[in-house]
Structure formats: structure tokens, C-alpha cells
Input
Amino acid sequence: MKERKTSIRIPNKIAADIGVRIVAGRLKPGTILDGEIEASGQRQVSRSAYREAILILTAKGLVHSRPKIGTRVTDLDQWHLLDPDVLAWMFAKQPQRELLVSLFELRKFVEPEAAALAAERRTLEQLNHMGGALETMAQETLHTERGRMADKAFHAALLSASANPFVMSLSGSVTAAVAWSTMFKERTQRLKRDPMPDHIKVYEAIAARNPGAARAAMLELIELALSDATQLRRSRGSSERRT
Output
């Protein structure tokens, strides 16, 4: 049983290492990766483990393998950017500014309208789930894993309250984006703005069944979060250039 866990873990670790370098822009589209024999030898892993890692990356659209050519990094428009693993790799290091901004643009397309729908359609149970998540966030803060999980739960409950199955199907991707951008801000420890008032405004508008106010409050929440993330990216980049 232990051997099986190890065989799964190693390919995932290899895929994550390569995936991080791709989404960070260190491996450019068109780059041909090392061959299976060479790459597995360099990493001191079996060829089957490396081959499985490439299959993981292929399934996420980051690479494409062709006989006699090799494994090539694909263009950005082929990446499965909403895959939770790809989002995790994006925020593992310094995210590319273009990807960061585009991710928040997606949130602006989805979450404000979802909040407006939630204000019209939410049930008392769904409202209570959002309220409970906010209570945990207030108690734990986003500096703790439990607080960040509560933040994720708040956004998931809001999307569910939209009662739109297509919006609800985006829940895993949107909440993963929320979680990883929060982790990025937490990791840098350079901004101390309290996000609770922004979340409370959204909750209160949904509780009051006010779609316009819910839409505006969610849009403001996302814009402030984007401002935090881009400021952190600039300050982190400046620090890295000085070292």
C-alpha cells in the first residue's frame, strides 16, 4: 500500500515542478522538454513516473507530445487555467501579471451577477451557511487555514445560492481562485487590509434581497482584492530584484 502512494506522489510532484515553471513563464510556449530517458535520469526517478507526470501535464493542456518531435510546451490558449492544480501552480511562485489580472476579470464576470441572483433566490439555509462562514472568518482571520477555508465556503455558498446550474458548475474553479489568491497575499505578508467589511456588505445585501447592492458590493470586493494582489506582486518583484 505504501508503494502505491509513493508511485502516485512522485509523478504529481514532477508534474507540479514542471507546471510551476510553465505557468510562471520560465518555460515558454514552444519549448521542447528533455526526453524521457534524460529527464528521468536527471530527476533520479523511473521512466514510468516521468511518463505519468507528462500525461498529467498533457491532460491539463500545458504540454503536447508528438512522435519524433518530443514534448512541447503549448500556447497559453490551450492551458486549462481553471483546473485547481494549474491555479495552485500559478500562485506557487510569482504569478504572471497578465494571468493574475485575467483571473480577476473572470471573477468580475461571474461573482457580481451570482451575488445579484443570490439576493433574489437564496434560501434561509443558504444565507445561514454564508453567515456561519463569515463568523468563522471573523474569529479565525485569513491568517489561519480554517479562516481561509471559511472564506472559500462563503463564496461557494453564494454561488450555490444563485440557483443557476451553470454558475454553480464554476464553484470549484472560482473558490480555488479565491483560495490561492488569498494564500498568495498571506504568504507575502505585505498588506494588512481587513477584508471582512467587504464580505459583510455582500452578505447584508443578499440578506436584504437587494440584487443591485449585492452586485455592487461583490464587484467592490473583487476590485479591492485585485488591488491587493497587484500591489503585492509589484512589491515582491522589487524585493526579488534587489536581492
